[in-house]
Amino acid sequence: MSFWNSLRIGLSGLTAQRLRLDLISNNIANAQTTRTEQGGAYQRQDVIFMAEGQTGFVSKLEAARRNQADRMQGGVQVAEIITDTETGARVYDPTHPDADDEGYVTYPNVDVVVEMTNMLSATRSYEANLASVEASKRMALKALEIGR
Is there a domain that residue 92 lies in? Predict the structure, then answer.
């Protein structure tokens, strides 16, 4: 694996975790949003990652069946951003502007504790990718020093 490839892999991890952090921040910011442009309460979003260069498990099996070399170069890419369709809590508040005919308000399905835990995980993953980039950089600099 080359120096540039290791940097590219680390960068893909940094980019992926940044997107994850953005989605988590958006979820937390909308934890009390009861009305969206689409109608109804906000629904939390999450991201699904997959290995770079792969289109899913089935394609991996197909490649193995044909005895092809694994073309995966490493790194991560976004497979999709999903919306959690689970219904949020319904609270009786007939004075709320978004209350239904029965006086209930449907709140977003965002659990701030879960989101903060996910944020901690994404932050740690970001830091690990940053450490791998720094290690690659240090190794390249040491190789240049040896070559002098």
Answer: no
